[in-house]
Amino acid sequence: MQSTRNHANVDPAEIAKFEELAHRWWDRNSEFKPLHDINPLRVNYIDERSPVAECRVVDVGCGGGILSEAMAMRGARVTGIDMGEAPLNVARLHQLESGAKVDYFQTTAEELAEDKAGYYDIVTCLEMLEHVPNPASVIRACAKLCKPGGDIYFSTINRNPKAFALSIVGAEYILGLLPKGTHEYSKFIRPSELADWIRESNLQLQHITGLTYNPLFKTYRLNERDVDVNYMVHVKKPVEC
């Protein structure tokens, strides 16, 4: 399925960044190494708070399918959506090798929500909000996609001097963990901003945790006391919605 509707909330430059690197998505020593390294933390966090087995899950901004496949391997019925054609092609090819069963579509959250409102038990939207022109629109769409009583997960990057130093200067220019130009500081999102959009979408914030990196040991961990840079939130859609 490839959407032909208007893509108002898409930044072509952001799509092009990941299109160019798509062939390296599943290379664990490539530019996507950080995604592979943090994926067990992300999946465990989701699965512990909202067991995914037998649940209908949509992964918004799925890219090459790293998170989508991991949830499918735990028994979830996963749909992965993205606007990058090349990453989706890579995702489809990789599942032939891995055996993971994921349905991939080239569409936006807003478009899918028009057809699948209230359909999904769990909605994930990780490392994606900072790459779109209107994050609040994506959050509203995720709320619409989620069934009443369901769970939604967002992750993004805080906007402050520490985040600039670590996520851009450190990760992109000094340590080389990410390609230069991966992120734009102005698109980073403060937790207070994300919380406002969550409330405006009639969702309930359940939990927030940081994701920190130790450059000495080259390891990541979840840390509730440090949301200064990367952070992840668990949101609930009220039953009465």
TrEMBL record:
Residues the record lists as binding S-adenosyl-L-methionine: 42, 61, 82, 126
Domain of life where this protein originates: Bacteria
Keywords: Methyltransferase, S-adenosyl-L-methionine, Transferase, Ubiquinone biosynthesis
First-level EC class: transferase
Catalysis performed (reactions): a 3-demethylubiquinol + S-adenosyl-L-methionine = a ubiquinol + S-adenosyl-L-homocysteine + H(+); a 3-(all-trans-polyprenyl)benzene-1,2-diol + S-adenosyl-L-methionine = a 2-methoxy-6-(all-trans-polyprenyl)phenol + S-adenosyl-L-homocysteine + H(+)
Recorded metabolic or biological pathway in which this protein acts: Cofactor biosynthesis; ubiquinone biosynthesis
Single Gene Ontology MF annotation: 3-demethylubiquinol 3-O-methyltransferase activity
Gene3D superfamilies registered for this protein in UniProt: Vaccinia Virus protein VP39
EC code: 2.1.1.222, 2.1.1.64
One GO-annotated biological process of the protein: methylation
PANTHER family named in the record: METHYLTRANSFERASE, UBIQUINONE BIOSYNTHESIS O-METHYLTRANSFERASE, MITOCHONDRIAL
Family under the similarity heading: Belongs to the methyltransferase superfamily. UbiG/COQ3 family.
Function in brief: O-methyltransferase that catalyzes the 2 O-methylation steps in the ubiquinone biosynthetic pathway.
Protein name: Ubiquinone biosynthesis O-methyltransferase
Lineage: Bacteria, Pseudomonadati, Pseudomonadota, Gammaproteobacteria, Cellvibrionales
